[in-house]
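Researcher: Checking consistency across runs. Here is Sulfite reductase (NADPH) flavoprotein alpha-component again:
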Amino acid sequence: MRPSLLKRVLFRLHWLAGITAGLVLGLVGFTGGLLGLEAPVLSWLNPALHVSAEGRAAQTPDRWIAAARAAMPEHAVRGVAWEGPEHAVGVRMARAGARPTEIAIDPYSGAVLGTERGTAFFATVEQVHRNLAIGPIGKQVVGASTALVFVFIASGLYLRWPRRARSPSAWLRMNTAAKGRGFWWQLHAVVGTWLLIPYLVAAATGLWWSYDAYRNAVNGLAGVPTPARRGPANDAPAVASLDAAWTSFLREAPDAVRASMATSTAADGALEIRYQTAASPHDRAWDSLKLDPVDGRVRSREPYAELPRGRRFVASLFPLHSGSWFGVPGRVVAVTAALLMPLFALSGLWMWVLRRRNDALRRAAAPAPQELDARTA
């Protein structure tokens, strides 16, 4: 195929993908950026959930659960989330036909602090991000649009390939003196080049949640069996007491800074507590303790660092997707890239409008065929 023809074909492909998937990706990207801001926003909205020991001894999980049950007697307790000594404990509650919720408890006084403000908003944002809040059909639309990111990147790179391809400035420097359509092209092409790697990582990891075949292939390459899909909320009976297991956990993991504990046992009868320390590499790097629910005896220990490489890779997919794998700088880059995603849909659409307008002006300025014949006679 001749280069000029290939360029026209790729331009049409880039344009067609843009008008079909660009707006969806803009929405998915923007909501993903909002989700990246969830933790600091919720922390700001809920100052009452930051507590201080002030010389008080923390109560035990059984007391926390009793307080939560008294506040929400129609709900069943599903688990306990501990976020360190200076944060309220979250008791996860569920009821048939209702969205699960988490009630905050002061770990020292046992006082009910209520539910966290802002969580309903971010739950809706997450649904829009995952499936446009319209269920399985939306999930397929998001997945197909995410797959088209690779088409955008490949065709976009070819279309803007500079003559001095080895020069970084030819790729990365923006011409701030550009006007009109040239200015919008600078925004579209140069900013897109700046964010190319974050978008590649986000798309490659995002497809893991969109398509079973893709997820199974990634899990297979990593040597990780694909877990069975979760059914309804776990209806296993809650253990009589969590206190013995919690006391053992505090003794066995004194450097833990956050932990998550179920209120029912696994198939082997053990109670699992997953936790992280200050040295955990990212927010999905969970160490695990399995404890006897009666006497707190440690049945097994599974440090994240000792997991097979494939399992650690799969556990890292969400931190890679959100940027948290790279710490605070990674989060900043990922959130910025996500919030800027609508820029490409809007700038591409506006360039198309300007192109159509310029073409119409050229046709209007061109002499009519009769006029041209009269001039040449």
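Researcher: Does this match what you'd expect to see?
Model: One thing to look at in this run: The chain has two domains: 1-46+117-221+327-377, 48-116+230-307.
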